[in-house]
Amino acid sequence: MTTETTATTPTPLPLSQSEERTWAMLAHLSVLVNLFTGVLGPVVALVIYLMFASRSRYVAYHAMQSFIFQLVMWYGIGAMWAVVGMLSAVVVGVVLIPFACAVTPFLLAGMAIAPIYGVWGAIQTSQGQDFKYWLVGDWMRQTLVG
Questions:
Q1: Per-block average pLDDT, block size 10, for the chain (146 residues)?
Q2: CA distance 53 to 20
Q3: How far apart are CA 35 and CA 88, in angstroms?
Q4: Contact 110/79 with Cβ under 8 angstroms?
Q5: Does the model's pTM come out above 0.85?
Q6: Residue 101 and residue 81: Cα distance in Å, rounded?
């Protein structure tokens, strides 16, 4: 007689509405982590997304939105100047330096506003309202829904 045991992985339970609000709020507040670490805010938002994507579309949407928003705001300046620096070796970058100088103040202003925008998103999601970042929100919704 052989006894077969089947290993089943438990299906994760969906989050309650209160838990969804809390985790969505924390995803938006992850922008504040950048104020202390400089770079780890997007990592926190991504971890929240990975932990709860299968349990809540609401949390997945807000966490991924926060992740993309932070990538654009916090890494945009560095990426732009890295491209300009690499292209400078090929003379093309020299032409781009005035463009980079003109765009940098706007990106720096965005970095200053990003924590305020993230806190606003956290407040709205904690109250059960839907929140979407400008430009990022609609794109994320289309990407996640399919």
A1: 63 85 94 86 95 92 92 78 74 73 78 83 88 77 70
A2: 11
A3: 31
A4: no
A5: no
A6: 9
